Known about the structure:
The protein has helices spanning 12-21, 48-61, 74-87, 124-130, 134-143, 211-220, 227-243, 391-405, 424-428; strands at residues 29-35, 65-70, 93-99, 102-105, 108-111, 132-133, 148-154, 185-189, 252-255, 304-310, 313-319, 324-331, 338-339, 342-347, 352-355, 358-361, 368-376, 381-389, 412-415, 419-422, 433-440, 447-449, 469-472, 478-485, 494-497. The protein is an alpha+beta fold and 498 residues long. A hairpin with a 4-residue loop joins strand 17 (368-376) and strand 18 (381-389). It is globular, with a radius of gyration of 24 Å.
Amino acid sequence: MRTLLRGLLVCSLAATVLVLALPAHAEKRIALVIGNNDYRFVPKLQKAVNDARTMGDTLKQLGFEVMVAENLNRQQFSQALLAFDSAVAPGDTAFFFYAGHGFEIAGQNFLLPTDVPAATEGQEELVRDASILADRVIERLQNKKVRTSILVFDACRNNPFERPGTRAIAGGGGLAPMTQLPEGVFSVFSAGPRQTALDRLSNEDANPNSVFTRAFAKELTQPGINLVQVAQRTRRVVSEMAETVHHKQVPVYFDQMVDDVFLNGLAAGTAQDKPADPPQKLAALPPVSAPHLPPANESVNAPIAMFSRHNGGWTITFSIADPTLGISWRMGDAGDFRETGFMDVLDPRTRKRMPNPSIELPADAPAGTIQVRYVDAGGEMQGPFPIRFEPEAALIRDQRKILDMTATSWLSFREFNGLLVYYTHLMSYRCAIRQVRIGIDTAVPDKVLNLPACDTKDPIAIPSNATPYLKLPPSTQFVSVELTYRDGSVSEIKSFRR
């Protein structure tokens, strides 16, 4: 395996001294860039390391302190993340780029180290235990209170576990939509749901980078455009390049930014409110052989919660990386903890009954903090860990995720005393939608479709006085639709044919 780091360690001493000399409160730009090519048990990749090197050079031009790591196994990946944790501070801008194999399991995205095993059908747990949960990267940056987190995944490749003569773990190309992002996070995927990202346009394509990275790196350095514009321009360029070889690849982005973020200067005419960024500095990762334990108060294994709203109230599901013997919780900082109980299935890691990872809350549950703790495989109590419950924000994120995953169900046609197009599905998840635009026999949605107001007490129910369909001319062939979500992001334009 080639060396973990390149270049940075040579000149790190002077640069590190300079970094340490900065005031503790100074806002910095810190980047961790990872490229994995040399997989041992699943297919190797050709351009992930080149992509990481190109992104590292690009981010240095933009004033980032860059840590570049190549061909990481599971332990080295963890050490790189710990070094990233140590480098960022409250108020910083953090940039995480990953090129390599990625895989979705049950709606969660995992980044695959080079020693991930060649799992087969039914061995999803092996992949989970050997990989890095993408959501965990976001959580760690949130714990460090960075101001802006930018995450870019050029990992939407084919199923790496497919092999002739075996039944592979279920999964196609692409990663799951990352819709439940906290405030201040911007994420970009090199391809949309169920799409695969191209390494090259043809066998004659001599470009050292993937189709996505070559476009994204170029757009990042364009002066005066914000992150959303970078993502939109990259999406257009990549889509057009992929179409030249009759391939569908449309990068997607998920935006939870409050302010516009400009990485290469403000737009023309925008006031320069703060001084220019300090000269570029370099930061170095420690050697992988050196032990580096996280601080005792760092919530590396803190649970992640997923919130789901249904007619009866809320289901909250905890995701815990460690094998657990029991899970308990309480609402707020006082009172007794309640056990979640157990499921009628054995956890293969502990060979004991698996704790129930879910709890239920009533529909009118107020905002608050859920305290979660668990017993690890060694019998030690871990936690409690605080998880913030914001009903309105959780409702919007949950419905947005459902809309992204069920895009083929947004509209449906029916012939009944004429031609009707139903948008019942959009009505049911309208709390996540700011505006719906449709186009009749045109690929440009040019009409606004009015939806009832969101009812947070019964969000999925369709009001009795609402009409969930439109009457169309009998000659209509197709309807296009575009959603503007509550966070201001815009969906791809979808076309629905009769």
